[in-house]
Amino acid sequence: MDSRNLLSADQSRAARSLLNWSRVRLAAKANLSEMTIGDFENGVRKPRPHNIAAIRQAFEDAGIVFTVEGTPSLPRSEGDGGIATDNRMWRRRQEKA
């Protein structure tokens, strides 16, 4: 099976936590509904493979790396102007809208 289609609810929650993302933000980044994210993370239903791939791709685009063991991690520190700066900029754009 293609590893892009492998993602557990626990991995999704952990990756969101690392990025400090809400379900709404993940849904927007993956171009899915918040209900799809919520149902997946709460174990209500498993999304279709292409939706899992979209969720995983959104995480990877944001810098998340899934280790061989499946644990999500951020290889760069938040002090380097990467993720933390991106989150602050996103919040400012949301406040202006």
From TrEMBL:
Q: Give me the ranges of the annotated region Disordered.
A: 70-97
Q: Which residues form the HTH cro/C1-type domain?
A: 13-60
Pfam families associated with the record:
HTH_3
Protein name stated in the entry: Helix-turn-helix domain-containing protein
Gene3D superfamilies cross-referenced by the UniProt entry: lambda repressor-like DNA-binding domains (1.10.260.40)
Q: Which PROSITE patterns match?
A: HTH_CROC1
Q: Which InterPro entries match?
A: Cro/C1-type_HTH, Lambda_DNA-bd_dom_sf
Organism for this UniProt entry: Mesorhizobium caraganae
